[in-house]
């Protein structure tokens, strides 16, 4: 410490600190306050603010001044040098809801709430509560810092940014701070204190960073809990790397190679550098796809495709390229590629829907016949694919055939990928041709990390929903672990479609490298969504540019149009490319600026797009007509060339771009378009003195704002191609641009082109894919569904199908049993799945579902066993439960999620008596809640109000997805504000839970009911402690009950000695509750089974497939109870306690001495024992021999009841 710093410190130095906290789980209407642990001498708390742009980051508006006073001035840093006292500033974050204190932050940020209070406690950290710490000895006096936190994360080192002034002195002090930090505090790593400069300005030192380095706060803890049921600290984040041992399977519709066949039948191959996936890498890459064949094209059905007897030769030819061909029948592939992909998907993905037919000929398929008029040679020229001709426009009633072709080709691709896959490989699928391929791969190789990347736009949900196969396509993409797009605009449309069509949620989740990733939550697993624009390979283009043939072609073009500014365009002849709009804009420019006539020329290359059918022919004729019209007015102004794709390959295209001065792209909807990037590389030398020596005004792009490259080519002139005057203005601006501005724009455009190459783009995507959490405990993945509805479910370790035999054994040996059953979805088919049925049920326009006769008999049989205490816990009203189940003796009922309880009673003739779970003293809140809900119902179409005795619900499941969710959040905030003085809870269930906002009395849920039943168990069952519990539920309303019962079971297991047998982690969906009050009411030998009906993420330990499976389980338990009273096997007799003879055995509950004791056994012939004498000579008893060899555990015989 230098003398100045020491003097400042001893005089009571201060530092100014801004606080930022990342709040991922904060609900709508909640606020964050920073509360010091004590003694700043200022106000008690500091409110943090956010904006729509900053969310989820909350920050203080003004810096907080922290005193750096020394309590122990004699403290010396380690190493012997004089140091700063190691004092700390500690604080916590508090959450306010509706203007009042709601809770403190906690490690999981979702644990039990603290009691409400009017203000904060004086010492929030008292009692050892976790706090955030800022080590004051690491910060300097009179400096400004920013502390970055994550809500609930208190154990990680402080993440501090030093906002130093851009001066040499500040740089030196920062270096000193680094040195002291490294030497004096070995417990902290250098990343604990990040010192970075603000944006550079005047006076910034040489070499200082121009932009502030953004450092994320420590990542939130893992959402999985430790075996102890508490949140555990997340493991240190490991950087994700790709090395030469990593395997990658790249799947695309076509292989990135070009095949040739000589006249003597020899095959050869070369890389197709036109394709994005032809790049070379150090990874072990296997490419899978259909071959392109530039030699023999297969124009007839008899000779279509590669001959079967030569396919082995082609495979050997492709072996050095690590390419594996997929041999698909050409006619089938043509149906898939031309019929479905180009005819159906291509227009929709580009936000085009053909609602009106062009004429009656469309229905007759004349569009396809017009293509067939093209001779076979032209078809083979445009195709360049191993495909056969097929109809191309829309479904036209052929949806089933086209969809069948699409699925068949995807299945064949899946077979080939499985053959090439090795454990640990990454699978990267490309293009809209293979959208459902991940669905097939997850069945065969569920352990593989699969990514899919779309090189086309993704339409808005209103356009995408017009597809008849929309759900299948979305589910196919979501079966991948990562979905990639070139722009976030496309990713946003995909997210919206998933939300609107499938009801899924998305948000930011922690990733493997310590940052956060945008992901969709689907069936308990997260699908990452990335948006990274692809680039080009500048070295490859530079090699082409310096090639002799390229230079000769450039010279020829410049000689052909001497002393003229050359505008160029290379587009496929289809309406989406906007060539007619380009020509109209050029015509208007020449009309308004006649002085440029003869000084400029537009070279437009049109690539034949036969696959577009009628659209190609129409665009071609319109383009030719416009070019002819312009040349008639101003001869030589437009040079139109219509070429086959093979005639304008990379070498010819680069020569044209190099010769041109301005590139023009006017597409009205475009995915990946690399032409502007190639043009920029072709003119990058204009930034040097040598390149400017030619005196040309070159290097400017006119780029449509509907092209993906617009977002990355910031130096281009951006236009709206639908506005002809704007295109004409861009022509004028490019022709008259000053050299300084032109070079500045070219420099800006070059920044992205040189920085983001194809390899860097692929590396970024692969790192994201490799970083996907898969095959890591405690989550495992399980498959469910049939056909294309097959999907992966994220399950917790140990979540398996319920073992009925295990339940039976525990049931048989127990004496005090508790059975808790949900109603809808568990003992009766769920009547909430269909929205219309739900609405009719609420409005009492239709009957409600009732249990079947078999289910009623099963419940009655369980209740007849005096060892059983059975409860049906439902969300329905009590009159409905009484009507369907009220006549079953000894059956307990709980209505409206446990608010109303009817204890088991043998008397069913009289009216059932009900009591409430919590006292309901004030019901005036109902009218206020309904009044508020009516306001939102009137302005939210599709919503309605549902009232019961206990609660009031606002249902919005039928409303617009986005608008309904926004209105629900606002309604929740509104109700929380105006009902905060009433003893009620305001609950918001998202679309996954049915879409509702509910107001109910405070403290009412099925979990609280379960604890109440257990505490009353000795009274209602007239037994001791519970030694068997079976809990069945099916939806989110049952999760509190399943969570409570599972935690009770966990406490029992933890109390038992288990040497070297660690317990499995508790599931992430578990709702932590204090269940210690139930310890005195459960047996140490308790066997507890929690089960959800339906395979889905749950707090339960196991699952049953459906209601029928639940019925079979209950009927099996009834058989065990019945057999226990009437039937015995030899094994049962051997295990009877204290049995020396049949007459001297001990009596079970309810048995009468002298009554007939045995009937026909399940494993023995019929025999009968009548009344036995009280004293029988053992030697005369024929069963004595059997009793001499008792079997202690009759488990083997228990399975026969199935």
Automatic annotation (TrEMBL):
Region (Disordered): 105-129, 218-237
Xref: InterPro entries: Glyco_trans_20, HAD-like_sf, HAD-SF_hydro_IIB, HAD_sf, Trehalose_PPase
GO MF term set: alpha,alpha-trehalose-phosphate synthase (UDP-forming) activity; trehalose-phosphatase activity
EC number: 2.4.1.15, 3.1.3.12
Superkingdom assignment: Eukaryota
The entry's keywords: Glycosyltransferase, Hydrolase, Transferase
Protein name: Trehalose 6-phosphate synthase/phosphatase
Family listed: In the N-terminal section; belongs to the glycosyltransferase 20 family.
Assigned GO CC terms: cytosol
Gene Ontology biological process terms from the UniProt entry: trehalose biosynthetic process
Stored CDD domains: GT20_TPS
Ranges in a coiled coil: none
